[in-house]
């Protein structure tokens, strides 16, 4: 009897030991969460959320920058008869808060957020897709010229798609200043601005100024995406640092500075073309195009005018880039995605 018991016990032990096999197989399928976190849809949503956080935090600087860029234009075309005051960045910001109210520093933020639903999602995801085409898994460092090509293409495509929201944003930003100067308001809300643009220029009018807009976005993303990706991998490879907040901060600060240098001249041209009045056919009354605007600006105000608003542009881009990349990387880490 004892022998039988001893002979049967290995069988029992064998069946017991073989039981966990299906369980271990199920455990091997668990990285589904990782795949989802790195998916196109999830990356798109995370980029939009991170961009919205950065936009709300730094929008007053964008409004100040736009007002500074338009000041010289108003004086040049009114031959000195304008009541517009030339003020610096800080004085302009405090002037808006004092003369129009503190909440006016966020005037036009709604279409700006709408813009990022398209712009930020498309630029981040398209850059990531192109980067993966150039590398095996998208985590390796790209050569600078390949990274630059990806950044320019991603920025241009994203901005062209988001250009209507950007046009509405710029027009709303200037309404407070127009009313202080005694001029009749052109638009009353984002919806009203959208309807007015379509009524005057048709659907095509929504892309007024899209060429300098796309040019600016291509240059900005050449500075932002390319610099961030290159500097991040350079720091991690050369200094042997992990993918951490310190690396993100250093890379994002460099990205914001380079983006401001690359994008400010195109931003001045874009802002002036999009803000100019139009005739009943939707044609601009001040400039025939981006080249004409560039020529007139340099001829009447000098080359330095192309960098008007550079300080607030850089001061905005630096914290915007810092806030965006830190939020983006942190959210991805929280949901189990890999580093960008």
UniProtKB/TrEMBL annotation:
Superkingdom of origin organism: Eukaryota
Composition skew (Low complexity), residue ranges: 8-24
Keyword presence, Ubl conjugation: no
GO BP annotation list: transmembrane transport
Gene Ontology CC: one annotated term: mitochondrial inner membrane
Compartments where found: Mitochondrion inner membrane
Record region (Disordered): 1-27
Pfam assignment, any one: Mito_carr
Solcar repeats by residue range: 38-133, 142-234, 243-334
Membrane topology term: Multi-pass membrane protein
Keyword Transmembrane helix: yes
Main localization, broad class: mitochondrion
SUPFAM superfamilies (alphabetical): Mitochondrial carrier
Keywords assigned by UniProt, alphabetized: Membrane, Mitochondrion, Mitochondrion inner membrane, Repeat, Transmembrane, Transmembrane helix, Transport
Sequence similarity: Belongs to the mitochondrial carrier (TC 2.A.29) family.
Annotated protein name in UniProt: Mitochondrial uncoupling protein 4 isoform X1
Gene of this entry: LOC117148422
